[in-house]
Amino acid sequence: KQEVTQIPAALSVPEGENLVLNCSFTDSAIYNLQWFRQDPGKGLTSLLLIQSSQREQTSGRLNASLDKSSGRSTLYIAASQPGDSATYLCAVYPNNNDMRFGAGTRLTVKP
Amino acid sequence: GAVVSQHPSRVICKSGTSVKIECRSLDFQATTMFWYRQFPKKSLMLMATSNEGSKATYEQGVEKDKFLINHASLTLSTLTVTSAHPEDSSFYICSASGFSVGDEQYFGPGTRLTVT
Questions:
Q1: Which of A69, A77, A81, A96 is the most exposed place for a label (fewest CB within 10 A)?
Q2: What's the rounded Cα separation, in Å, for the pair B90 and B113?
Q3: Is the pLDDT of residue B37 over 90?
């Protein structure tokens, strides 16, 4: 059974700092991996989707990497801003019709 | 991009009553829809997967008689929480996928259910 772990559970950084969020999964045979953002009491906002054949995806200040062999993905946020404060969820697709979520990392960026 | 809506966004109901949550794919045909539940400060837990015209497949531990799922058309799935209790209070999120939009799941904005 695929298990997804996110470390740390919570992170607080000063504005402007670069940071890395980690996601690990137990079964390397994944279809896709996706990073989401969730604001308190809100739904999910998709940030980056990495297909199994890809190693990274970039969007603006965000860069997500995928290393299937080691069962790891990282989300790099450059020059963090207070507006980046949210919970970041990592989700893996064990196949093309299923998703498993990590518990998330709660990020606080202090002005 | 593909858009999924949910209605209502918030609902408060009394114990013992039933409440229905709708999930709609607005601009694509959703051959598969998923229902998730999220407890405070916890991640999303898949409740069930439904394919259009078929019975939903429930995850272990999810009561199918309590959480009724209907996926009657390619654009609409409903989740009915029957005889709701305060412990059913939660954030419910649906997602949808379809051949025309690839394999990615598109998420609705969620429904906050409070049972008093």
A1: A69
A2: 5
A3: yes
DSSP A97: T
- The angle at the Cα of A22, spanning A21 to A25, to the nearest 5 degrees, equals 150
Please give the interface size between A and B, counted as residue pairs whose CB atoms are below 8 Å apart: 44
How far apart are the CA of A44 and the nearest CA of chain B, in angstroms?
7
Per-residue b/e over A66-79, b at no fewer than 16 CB within 10 Å?
Answer: bebeebbbbbebee
Q: How far is CA B58 from the centre of its chain?
A: 12
Strands A56-59 and A44-51, bridge-based pairing: unpaired
On whether the CB atoms of residues A32 and A23 are closer than 8 A, the answer is no
CB A102 within 8 A of CB B43: yes
Q: Give the chain A residue nearest B10 (alpha carbons).
A: A41
Q: How confident is the model at residue A2 (pLDDT cuts 50, 70, 90)?
A: confident
Chain centre distance of CA B47: 8
Q: How far apart are CA A68 and CA A20, in angstroms?
A: 18
Cβ separation A101–B43 shorter than 8 A: yes
Closest CA to B31 of B86, B105, B92, B96: B96
* Cβ count within 10 A of residue B58: 18
Place B103 in a pLDDT band, splitting at 50, 70 and 90.
low
pLDDT at A10: 95
Q: What is the largest CA-CA distance in chain A?
A: 41
